[in-house]
UniProtKB/TrEMBL annotation:
Keywords: Calcium. Residues 350-371 are annotated as: Disordered. Coiled coil: none annotated. InterPro entries: EF-hand-dom_pair (IPR011992), EF_Hand_1_Ca_BS (IPR018247), EF_hand_dom (IPR002048). SUPFAM superfamilies: EF-hand. Residues 27-62 form the EF-hand domain. SMART domains: EFh. PROSITE patterns: EF_HAND_1 (PS00018), EF_HAND_2 (PS50222). This is EF-hand domain-containing protein. GO terms for molecular function: calcium ion binding. The lineage of its organism: Eukaryota, Viridiplantae, Streptophyta, Embryophyta, Tracheophyta. Transmembrane segments: none annotated. It holds the Pfam family EF-hand_7.
């Protein structure tokens, strides 16, 4: 995370709250009772596949996946989460089974947050106003203006394009429909940007852009925006650590093989290598397939190397060998060209028990509610 980001009013989510929840048997049992009752719409004491869907959707959202049904690449991850609850066979899940699986999932997510914490930023306009009134404003704004094709754009278009160049390090929340409607548009209207004719001069742009930023700062002061910020660098070190730990690797490969569907001869097709990688991903510091485009391309290259999609049935030892080859290939690619990924997203609701399966109660929610 940048130094500017570290100076902001921030709170770090490192998974400790989730670990504390699961480790406190009395509190976790109460939490499960509440969630189970909330999901059990027909009050029959069991959760059907349909009743489990809200919990699965919350878990997918917490993993950073797009909504179910919008990406074929990540939909299989939702299916795997559901299979964790149903073991791929049962149509209904008891409270005991729900509690055990939810505990495993939450602890896995806590481990991920410990490794890659999420920082919650409260953007209240102060940093943006400091930027607008500070020495960085003119040179950075002129640099932005220089590569905006302003001759064929209105002042509104130019300012919107320039706002898109600002980041949370400037004190500007990421682009979002709520931010646009409730912060940016009121500021543009207040500053009368539609009154200006083309072409737009540098002087005019500097003057009006400063006014817009000052107005946005005031809007944010009155209605702060909460932003979830995360950063991660995938450099292959997690895979190298896993490959060097034979006991852990063998245990993970045994689990992966055991969870795969087999034919009558006890063989599985090579195409399940991709699925097995998702199961091993957390231990190798790899994101779920479909979550990071750059990583997906690296993984696909490794899978193509072993013809993973040829549908050929393989026995257990050959399957494990393929898994090691794919992991080794991904490791070498990431060591040669590490991939850094950062993300900022606006949080519109507190992570409360009423809105997410992942947080015990509104009182313990680390995310302030956006007004």
């Amino acid at each position: 995370m940048s130094n500017d980001c570290k100076k902001k009013n921030a709170q770090v989510l490192d998974g400790s709250d989730i670990r504390d929840l699961v480790s406190n048997e009395k509190v976790f049992t109460s939490f499960v009772d509440h969630k189970f009752k909330e999901l059990d719409r027909d009050h029959d004491g069991k959760l059907s596949v349909k009743e489990l869907q809200p919990a699965v959707a919350d878990i997918g959202a917490a993993l950073g996946l797009p909504a179910q049904g919008t990406s074929s690449d990540s939909d299989h991850i939702y299916s795997e989460v559901l299979n964790e609850f149903t073991h791929g066979k049962r149509e209904e899940v008891s409270k005991t089974e729900f509690k055990a699986v939810l505990s495993d999932i939450l602890l896995g997510m806590a481990a991920g947050l410990k490794r890659d914490p999420i920082v919650i930023l409260r953007i209240d306009g102060q940093e943006l106003l400091e930027f607008a009134d500070g020495p960085r404003f003119q040179p950075e704004t002129l640099a932005i203006f220089s590569h905006i094709e302003s001759n064929d754009k209105t002042l509104r278009d130019c300012i919107i394009a320039a706002l898109g160049e600002l980041t949370v390090d400037h004190g500007m929340p990421p682009s979002d429909s709520w931010v646009t409607s409730n912060v940016v548009e009121p500021a543009l209207e207040s500053c009368g940007v539609d009154r200006y004719q083309r072409p737009i001069s540098q002087e005019t742009f500097l003057e009006v852009f400063h006014k817009v930023l000052a107005n946005i700062s005031q809007q944010l002061k009155e209605r702060p925006v909460i932003v979830a910020h995360s950063e991660n660098t995938f450099d292959g070190s997690g895979i190298r650590r896993l490959l060097s730990n034979k006991f852990e690797l063998d245990k993970l490969l045994d689990t992966a093989w055991g969870s795969l569907p087999k034919d009558r001869r006890g063989k599985a097709t090579k195409e399940f290598v991709r699925l097995a990688l998702d199961g091993i991903g957390p231990a190798a510091n790899l994101p779920p397939y479909g979550a990071v485009d750059q990583i997906d391309k690296v993984v696909e290259a490794a899978l193509n190397m072993v013809d993973a999609d040829d549908g050929k049935p393989v026995e257990e030892e050959e399957f494990k060998k393929l898994m090691k080859e794919v992991l080794g290939s991904v490791m070498l690619q990431l060591e040669g060209n590490p991939i850094s990924v950062s993300a900022n997203s606006v949080v519109h609701e507190p992570l409360s028990a009423s809105s997410s399966v992942l947080t015990p109660s509104p009182e313990s929610s680390p995310v302030p509610e956006t007004e």
